Amino acid sequence: MRKVLPRKFYSRNTLKVARDLLGCFLIRECRGKIWRAMITETEAYRGEDDLACHASRGKTSRTEVMYGEPGHTYVYMIYGMYYCLNIVTEQKDFPAAVLIRGVKIISSSPARGEELEEGWELNGPGKLCKFLHIDRKLNKWDLTKGKKLWIEKPTQNPAKRDIVAGRRIGIDYAQHCREYLWRFQIDYQD
Length: 190
Known about the structure:
Layout: H1 7-10, H2 14-20, E1 25-30, E2 33-46, E3 73-78, E4 82-88, E5 96-105, E6 110-111, E7 114-115, E8 121-123, H3 125-131, E9 149-152, E10 163-166, E11 183-186
Antiparallel strand pairs: 1-2, 1-9, 2-5, 2-11, 3-4, 4-5, 5-8, 6-7, 10-11
């Protein structure tokens, strides 16, 4: 039985959602296969005042999904070659999202001619989108449907002490916002 995260999970404060997504399972159903990956790293982007947020310059055709209903995807391309997967959070008309930065493969399935072995880490948003076949076709996708792409509840949440907060990556242009400790990851060190 699927334990798809409901819309109310995403309707909360973005920083809380970013932390609570750690340990959850990102599921991708594609080409007759299902890939299951545990979310290990996230980044929060929150509001027009966050200079690192794509919505910092207001609503555009690209960012309109961030102003929409929580629980939908915001998929965009960087460097003209890599896709990034974000999940819209908080309330409609307030632009906020969580970037999925890293996952650990739980189930082994072939992808692009390679075996994704159990425990293999897809560290980096471009890498995980490439291997899980996530592209702009999944932009504005409703994750609460439980089809093609969705997120399931974890079997066990990581303890708060096992979560490390740090600066977001690649946002040196964001003035004071680059100092925010809005990147979260599971710390596997004993």
